[in-house]
Amino acid sequence: MFKLLIALEKEFLLLVKDKVGIALLFVMPIILVITITAIQNNTFKMVNENTTRLLICNRDSGQLSSKLLHTMDSLKLFQSYFISPATSLENLNDSMKLHDAMITLLIPERFSVSLQRNIDRKVAGSLEGFGIQNQVTKSEHLERTEIKTYYHPVLQESYRISMLGTFNSLVAMTENQLMVENIYKAINGEQKTTKPVDLSERGIVVQEGVAGYTDKNSVPNATQHNVPAWTIFAMFFMVVSLGGSIVKEKLRGSFIRLKILPTSYFINILAKQLTYLFISIAMVFVIFSIGKFVFPYLDLPGLNIPSNLIGLLTLTIITGWCAVSYALCVGVFSQTQEQCSGFGAVSIVILAAVGGVFVPSFAMPASFELIMKSTPFYWSLRSFYDLFLENKGITDIGLNLIPLLLFIILFQAAAYIGLKRKNLI
After folding, report:
1. With CB atoms counted within 10 Å of each terminal CB, which end of the chain scores lower, N or C?
2. Cα(217)–Cα(357) distance, rounded to whole angstroms?
3. Residue 281 counted as domain residue
């Protein structure tokens, strides 16, 4: 035990002397987590809080286009800016840049006339169906008038489709409201004895919820998604520091000097792993604390720590040990520090991309499913999401921990074989 403590002291002293390594292990992940979360949270706000800027070019002089715009404004879906009806299509791009708008809505000249004729056609058909004589003129053909939308090139297809559905719904809502009013007038004449039906009032509404959640304060947000994911990335990225330390000992002959000491070399290997395991746990504590206490001051959602602290600690230790084992394996097989830093950094980025840190696992193509599940990132991230997003217990994430333990055994065995073949042990 005394020899292990001495070896741990040696590793901590070496780590403390490496100021750049400490900064790489703590400062860079913190900056990364804050930056990614801030960017994604701003995207969530644009989609969920409906702050999309909209340019409106109304070339129609009738009242029905004004009613459509009034309905749109009452729903508070957009931040609208009106531009001159004489604005040409060639100048739309400049107007969108001026107002930093994502979408332009162009209402044509005959919008009110066409809409009114279509409404009269539908009202006449409805009254005939009820066997009621009416004075409404029924047109023979349905008039088609196109309301055009122009999008900024950077707008994603899914968001464009969503906005197209929103505009179609607004037009349908306006048309139905006018049709009900016209039917009421045709039946009751000009003397209104009752209030017309308000189509905006609904007795049945659709509400959203999050599976596994009963507390509204625990609804997942950008912080809940990003902080665990990028913390895992930071834990594995210490391959640069730990792997580089192992390469230094090989190149400087420290391995040979350590072998002649009156103790087993496994004590030194164990001390090195315990040191960096402690660093990984400290890293998780620091990043999670910043997410919980500092993020609200940065106008970001605070991190909601799961109630299952035992499961969180267990998962942190196993993930940290897996990261340490991977770094040990890379350091053993690397011949130079350049090889260790280059391969270690690039491999972590690739594993993170395939494992679901950059792109959600459900968005991966089916052909990547087997590759995705063959990375420790996938199982660790899935376990963190089970804790943070679904409030699961230690028994629920137990099956996800088994692959992580298998990865630890695999990396440790590979490192042992590498040390044995190099006659370092």
Report:
1. N
2. 24
3. yes
